[in-house]
Amino acid sequence: MRTAKPPVIQIRRVTKSYGHGDAVVHALRGPVTGGGEPLGVDLDVAEGDYVAVMGSSGSGKSTLMNILGCLDVPTSGRYLLDGTDVGHLDEGQLALVRNRKIGFVFQSFNLVPRTTALAQVELPLAYAGVRSAERRRRAMAALGLVGLADRAGHKPNQLSGGQQQRVAVARALVTAPAMLLADEPTGNLDIRSTEEVLGIIDGLNARGRTVVVITHEDEVALHAKRVLRLVDGAIVSDVRQAPVDGPPPALAAAGVVA
Amino acid sequence: MLRFAVAGLAANKVRSALTMLGVLIGVASVILLLAVGNGSSVAVKDSITSLGTNALTVSSASSRGSATAAKKLTVEDAKALATAADAPSIKSVAPVVTTSGTALYGNVSYQPGQIVGTYPAYFETANLKVDKGDYFSADDVLNSRKVAVLGSTTATELFATEDPVGKRITIGGTPFTVVGVLRTKGSTGFNDPDDVVIAPLPTVQNAFTGFGSVNQILVQASSAESTTEAQADITRILMGTHAVKDATKVDFRISNQTSLLSARESTTRTFTVLLGAVAAISLLVGGIGITNIMLVTVTERTKEIGIRKALGAPRAVILGQFLAESTLLSVIGAGLGVLAGIVGSHFSVVGIKPVVIPESVLGAFGIAVAIGLFFGSYPANRAAALRPIDALRHE
């Protein structure tokens, strides 16, 4: 066991609320005290884990995802990403954290329009200041990993939904981030593309990448090693489906061991 | 970054082109209108030198219709000026009579703008040069010979391509031999100085005006600096010949070409400033066009900005990208504007040949680029300041 390693994500008593006074809405609140005060959400995610966060609309899972991805700041509480307290970082440093430590995969792909797949994948590297030749090499490697090396010159409108999402996955992993954060990655995909994308994510996790997937689909959750359920801004269940340092369940079941 | 900017602009070709057109018109109009203003003041300056900066015109004040019968200017006045021993500032004197009439050559009939009778000194004082033939001489004047020097317009009208020198023309029944043709001076405004026939004074007096008064006396000062001195000398001498005691009641006027024309020059300067102001406003409007289009672009691409921010784009990169786009718009627009302005200045506008001021080209280009930066910075800042979460949610 590698329990000695610090968790990639450490969240302590994090709350997020919108509005003021009577109109205040707690999107994330955790357990509530007798007096109605939200205690906040606590969550640790270990390196190499594959976590699915489930919940219905309005359960706070997207808010959690935005906070985990440093796109939004919590109202209160502490968030340590890879040992760094991101609560004390300014905008520029947050941009750096997003660039180096987090790879995003969105439900709506969110590719940059009119830009070739290769340029898409090179983008985070460009922001990180990687040299052109090195950028190209790593981007091609990432595209190869998602099986799209032959589509490098295609623009988003020349790719299918599944291909676009695979480009997005390649873009997310090209910087070798500490964590891959996927928000409903298969929400807009058909069954075949869903399998393709999940297969790629499983493979990444099998190679040790920490993955957090936000989803409301049980089939997606089956791929995860650990499943969290959110209701009304609080974690109501935390089920482990497979050990942290083993292969993801889908690959284990198929008999493929990393 | 530049490649991104080009791609961004290329995505909306019509919109980019129209925005550039705004800047183009602004820059081109600054260059062109300033060139027109400058051209007209250059024309005025040319006409100052062409009239001779040393020239002073003495004319009778009686034409003003004053109650007292003013004494007209006469050849004697001119002689008094010419022979005055105590007036070293006066270099030469030429009495002038002007009249009009129809000139005939063969079966060609033409009415020149002016028929001038004068002395040979007139040519030098009025800065007239002969192109063909020669001036008439003092001897021609003394002998009242029927000779004439033609302005280039008159010569062309009467003789077309023929060489007029030595030919005989008839003006008002009197035959004249053409001895010379003047070099073209070019129009300075309302009257054509080349549309003229110049003949010896007594000849013209004999044939047309009679031996009475003269219209003007053209005096050449010894230098441009001594015109004021010459003016004082003329006043003193003519007060003597006209028996006027009171300097405020003189019956003649002395006008200095230089002062006359510098007044006109200041008018054209005002004109230039006015044109420049109008052009500057259109440049400003072009700049506002850039802001407008960039704001639309930022709104349209909010989601893209969000994606880039989620991928870790620093603020400076987003800022730079949109600034690059707006600056590119203005640079291309301004470049084309400079081109259009320079091409446009090759055509004369309402009779004025525009003269491009090099500073105005650099200035207009520089200001347009600065406007792109300045007016682009607001939308770019707005884009860069977007919170990634808000930008990503934007639909």
Provide a descriptive summary of the structure in words.
Chain A: Keywords: ATP-binding, Nucleotide-binding, Transport. Chain A: GO terms for molecular function: ATP binding; ATP hydrolysis activity; transmembrane transporter activity. Chain A: It holds the Pfam family ABC_tran. Chain A: It comes from Kitasatospora phosalacinea. Chain A: One of its GO terms (cellular component) is plasma membrane. The complex is a heterodimer of chains A (258) and B (395). Chain A is of the alpha/beta class. Chain A has a single domain, classed as Rossmann fold (3-Layer(aba) Sandwich). Helices cover 32% and strands 24% of the residues of chain A. Chain A has eight helices and eleven strands. Chain A has a six-stranded mixed beta sheet, sandwiched between helices. In chain A, strands 1, 2, 3, 5 and 6 form a five-stranded antiparallel beta sheet that branches. In chain A, 50% of the residues are buried. Chain B has 395 residues and is an alpha+beta fold. Chain B folds into two domains: 177 residues, no CATH class; 180 residues, no CATH class. In chain B, strands 1, 2, 3, 4, 5, 6, 7, 8, 9, 10, 11 and 12 form a twelve-stranded mixed beta sheet that branches. In chain B, strand 8 and strand 9 form a beta hairpin. Chain B is elongated.
